[in-house]
Amino acid sequence: MKITEVNTYAVRPRWGFVEIVTDDGFTGWGEPVLEGHTKAVLASVQEMADELYGRDPLHIEDIWTTLYRAGFYRGGGVLMSAIAGIDQALWDIKGKYYGAPVYELLGGACRSRMKVYRWIGGDRPSDVKDAALRKKEEGFRAVKMNATEELQMIDSYEKIDAVLERTAAVREACGKYFGIAIDFHGRVHRPMAKILAKKLEEFDPMFIEEPVLCEHMEAFSEIAACCNIPIAAGERLYTKYDFRRLLSAGGVSIVQPDLSHAGGITEVRKIAAMAEAYDVALAPHCPLGPVALASCFQVDACSYNAVIQEQSMGIHYNVGRSVLDYVYNKEDFCFEDGFASLPRLPGIGAEINRDLVVSENETPHTWKNPVWRHEDGSVAEW
């Protein structure tokens, strides 16, 4: 079996797909995307395609290592996202070749289902009380919301109070034991992050996410000392080496590698095992499409430390298209009682509507994140 085609597609709302085809008719799908840089990632996939043509797609570890190590420059969001999508597609082929879900090839499942959560509130969080209550009524046991709008390094306590009021409203509406994850989104700097984390403690959040950016990962232990709330981080890290530094720095209770950014299934499986050795939980980042989500479930299924899975159905970013639009097996992406069933199909577990993907690619998206500014005109973290 040899690889004969590597095709890339940009699809709404902000995703990219890669389709890898073999000479004996197997097709694998991956989702290589770095939000706001889709063109760069897909171009990198095509650059890497020269290393794929004629290769046996079952030799995943060797292909992955070649793509990563044979290039003099390595790592970073664009290159690792390209490798991630290719890796997902290769695992999709391998699972189909052996007639099994990917997690069966990784040692088998250690759970029967996976807890998931829903997003509420949008970029500038509002109406979170009613939204959270609706999600609870739909059967979800947890939600996540952005904590703040833009915050300067030292900012007004009025903005802090607004976060506390929203969190209090969700806690009051949904009860003491409903999961509330609060995403600081890297918008908060160390001085305000310490204040906000300490004040949020009374509401017993499930976790706080990216209280500061991972480029300041040495601050996580300092923030952790200010509160008894688990800290989650890692969506903007791309290799096992990045996560080794994060885990060594301490303070983080949950790692959040992204299966479409951090080298795909092959690399994230290693990151998950490394985190387990530190007694740190896994909650893969995934505000993306169906292949990325299915890939997350494959790793969740066989990773003991996986605790909850992000997914993008209903998220504010999904304008024009959403997850279920691109799959025929929609029933495999439905949730019951706040849990997802494990993938059942051979391969990744997403039966892709190729005709729709090709059609969307005729007018490729140009999604970019907004540029925010503070009142004084300086650029704010989004």
From TrEMBL:
Gene3D superfamilies noted in UniProt: Enolase-like C-terminal domain, Enolase-like, N-terminal domain
UniProtKB keywords: Lyase, Magnesium, Metal-binding
InterPro entries registered for this protein in UniProt: DgoD-like, Enolase-like_C_sf, Enolase-like_N, Enolase_C-like, Galactonate_deHydtase, Mandel_Rmase/mucon_lact_enz_CS, Mandelate_racemase_C, Mandelate_racemase_N_dom
Domain Mandelate racemase/muconate lactonizing enzyme C-terminal as annotated: residue spans: 125-230
A GO molecular-function annotation: galactonate dehydratase activity
GO annotation (BP), single: amino acid catabolic process
Pfam families: MR_MLE_C, MR_MLE_N
PANTHER family found in the cross-reference section: D-GALACTONATE DEHYDRATASE, D-GALACTONATE DEHYDRATASE-RELATED
Matching NCBIfam families: PRK14017.1
Protein name per Swiss-Prot or TrEMBL: Mandelate racemase/muconate lactonizing enzyme, N-terminal domain protein
Organism expressing this protein natively: [Clostridium] hylemonae DSM 15053
